[in-house]
Amino acid sequence: MRFILPLHVHQAQQKIYGKGDTLVTALDSVDISFEAGKFSAIMGPSGSGKSTLMHCMAGLDNLSSGKVFIGDTDLTELSEKELTLLRRSNIGFIFQSFNLVPTLNALENITLPIDLSGNKVDTDWVGQITEVVNLSDRLKHKPNELSGGQQQRVAVSRALASKPNIILLMSQQEILIQNR
Q1: What is the largest CA-CA distance in the chain?
Q2: Between vectors from CA 170 to CA 164 and to CA 171, what angle results, nearest 5°?
Q3: Alpha-carbon gap, residue 113 to 86, rounded angstroms
Q4: Could you read off the pLDDT of 24-39 as tens digits, one per residue?
Q5: What are the CA-CA distances from residue 163 to residues 83, 86, 113, 129, 175 (Å)?
Q6: Domains of the chain
Q7: Number of Cα atoms under 13 Å in the Cβ half of residue 55
Q8: Strands, E assignment, 6-64
Q9: Is 44 helix (H, G, I), strand (E, B) or coil?
Q10: How far apart are CA 63 and CA 124, in angstroms?
Q11: Are 2 and 36 spatial neighbours (Cβ–Cβ below 8 Å)?
Q12: Whole-model pTM over 0.90
């Protein structure tokens, strides 16, 4: 399944956690669209629901109410298997913690999602990405042998390797500010 964006979150989306005295409304009345080919940023203070929104947009978390669409596909109507297939072919993630597999080297971490999907790795494309992010000479190193910045570049390369339609960068503002 490959999509051409836009991505829409609408119909008074809500995400609620807990019950009674511990009830937290993480998202309330969200109605937002992202245009194809455009860079968009979701900004706000810690605890304002940015990560929750992004997890819901990617189908990693379920909404309490509302809909999320990628193109004409309603993510809230998909099974877990369908969501997994959609994410594999359409969404690249760069998580706050880079989620690198410690027993794999940098190149294996970059290509892991493609390998898991059963697709063929475009080695030329991966080579171009790792060259641009200045990682080519560190591809055989395991995460514990890489600096924090190099681990970040592995995560970025992994997100780009499958040529996704959507890239979600989660909670990296301090890293982005640092690398200006």
Answers
A1: 54
A2: 155
A3: 13
A4: 888 888 888 888 778 8
A5: 18, 13, 12, 11, 23
A6: 7-78 (3.40.50.300), 93-178 (3.40.50.300)
A7: 16
A8: 7-17, 24-34
A9: coil
A10: 39
A11: no
A12: no
